[in-house]
Amino acid sequence: MTPTARAEAIVGGNVRLASRLMRDLDDEMPGADETLAALYGHTGRAEIIGITGNPGAGKSTLTDRLITAWRAAGLRVGVVAIDPSSPFTGGAILGDRVRMQQHATDSGVFIRSLATRGLLGGLSRSTRDVVNVLEAMGFERILIETVGVGQDEVDVAHTAHTTVVLTVPGLGDGVQALKAGLLEIADLFVVNKADRPEADQVIRGLKLLLELEGGQRHGWTVPISPCVATDGTGLDTVVKLIDDHLAFLKTTGLFETRQRSRRRAELLDRVFVSLRREAEARVRAQGGAEALVDALLARTLDPATAARRLLDLDVRGDV
């Protein structure tokens, strides 16, 4: 089957081929990029929501609740759940549907787990590719749930239109844990497990920090919404605030601005991938990498200079 034929089948609803393409994109298999290229004209139509925050904050529970709410509203929902990597296989160790079993048989929901494979930033290297496939399949809302590594989870803001930052009481100084990076990307703060006595303290701390920085992002006042995701308390407000933010983006023209940010990040991702592949090809070229490694061992070259020289080598491996 040609890439164009595969793309047409995926747009037409072939879930099996879509799943295989997502796997092949994650594994960087030959032919996957060509199929994605054939799909690209069908992308750009979904609203993308990122869910990030402290480890153990209840991101998966909130994701499950949001899926239920949006399905009740008639929306088709795609989910990209970023999981920790197995140290042995590099694969996602939590799995696609362990946490969201009730949606497994719903054709209006597609859940895909991806492994970080050691990448920082909270995302997998193929996250944006998988989001593109979900868009081409016609999913109207796409949720990206990050891995849960605290302060490093800021890359999601370059992919999502709306970024929800989740925190909970009982993590020591939960507000302090959010200061580096996550505070700056939040379009909405959700304080989960708000039935705990320390929740008011977390809310007050967030309000203070937002007031110190002005409390607004391009005219949007960042709200703080308490909820209890396990029983759904406060969820209606969270859903409404997400809808309100998406409407605000579209009214002000910022939706297109974020689309441009997303595509720019996609472009840079692809540049990095191309450079890595080129470097790997040169490492495999006989003589080139070994001579550079020898120079590093002898301390006649430093790693930065060796890396630049590797990229300057031709495939014969001359140093």
Q: If you had to describe this structure to a student in words, what would you say it looks like?
A:
The protein is α/β, with parallel strands linked by helices. It has three domains: 1-42; 43-252, P-loop containing nucleotide triphosphate hydrolases (Rossmann fold, 3-Layer(aba) Sandwich); 266-312, no CATH class. Helix content is 46%, strand content 13%. The protein is built from twelve helices and nine strands. It has a seven-stranded parallel β-sheet with strand order 3-2-4-1-5-6-9, with helices on both faces. Helix 1 (3-11) crosses helix 3, helix 2 (15-27) crosses helix 3 and helix 2 runs antiparallel to helix 5.
Short summary:
The protein is α/β, with parallel strands linked by helices and about 325 residues long. Helices cover about 45% and strands about 15% of the residues. Helix 2 packs antiparallel against helix 5.
Which properties best describe this structure?
319 residues, alpha/beta, Rossmann fold, 3 domains, seven-stranded parallel beta sheet, two-stranded antiparallel sheet, 9 strands, 46% helix, globular, disordered C terminus
Strands ordered across the widest β-sheet: 3-2-4-1-5-6-9
Radius of gyration: 22 Å
Beta-strand portion reads 5-15%
In CATH, the homologous superfamily of the largest domain goes by the name P-loop containing nucleotide triphosphate hydrolases
What is the overall number of helices? 12
Number of domains: 3
Main sheet overview: 7 strands, parallel
CATH architectural category of the largest domain: 3-Layer(aba) Sandwich
Classify the helix fraction into a percent range: 40-55%
Distance between the termini: 43 Å
Shape: globular
Q: How many beta-strand segments? A: 9
SSE pattern, N- to C-terminal: HHHEHEEHEEHHEHEEEHHHH
State mean pLDDT (0 to 100 scale): 85
Any idea of the CATH class of the largest domain? Alpha Beta
Structural class: alpha/beta
